[in-house]
Amino acid sequence: MNDQALKQALLNLPDDAQESIVDRIFVPEFLQALGFGLMERVPHYTTGIRPDKVDYALRHNTNGDIFLATQSNPYILLELKGRHINLSDGSTQYQSTFKQLKGYLLDSNCKTVQWGIREHPNCAKIKGQPLFASNNREYFGRFNPAVFLPPARLQK
């Protein structure tokens, strides 16, 4: 993991960075820090029969199964927000984002998803406070933007 590149990406973000700016500057370094290469990320992933799309679905490639090509069996969903969004616990935007990610996790194309990450450049939560996957397991925790779980911890 390149901590310096990740920290520099955070420093480069304006204080009021919109989601598109966060996606362009911070997210590539964030996903790289989590251990996901370009062929292991699907942007704007369709989560089910509804037209809803999560910002990113992630899964490590397996023998002959390139996630970007097959777009099947995602392992992680990532919903990102701009820096200007108030995601403090209990806020309206927190509740809305929680509901949004929970809906994605329960959609038909996301039965294999084990983690939902609500990413915000100031704080990312992993199924925080709690979010439920389709298997109803709960995960709690926060990411400090400079401290991440190693990729091996994200795999079964």
The largest beta-sheet arranges its strands as: 1-2-3-4-5-8
Task: Assign a percent range to the helix content.
Answer: 25-40%
What is the string of SSEs from the N terminus onward?
A: HHHEEHEHEEEEEH
Class by alpha and beta content:
alpha+beta
Low-pLDDT windows of residues: 124-156
Strand portion: 15-25%
Number-wise, the strands total: 8
Number of helices: 6
Largest sheet: 6 strands, mixed
Q: Give Rg in angstroms.
A: 15 Å
Shape: flat
Report, as a whole number of angstroms, the end-to-end distance.
20 Å
Mean pLDDT: 77
Protein name: Type I restriction enzyme R protein N-terminal domain-containing protein
Organism: Allocoleopsis franciscana PCC 7113
Report on the structure:
The protein is α+β, with helices and mostly antiparallel strands and 156 residues long. 30% of the residues lie in helices and 20% in strands. It contains six helices and eight strands, in the order H-H-H-E-E-H-E-H-E-E-E-E-E-H. The protein has helices at 3-12, 19-25, 27-33, 67-70, 92-106, 151-154; strands at 41-46, 53-58, 76-80, 115-119, 124-126, 131-132, 138-139, 142-143.
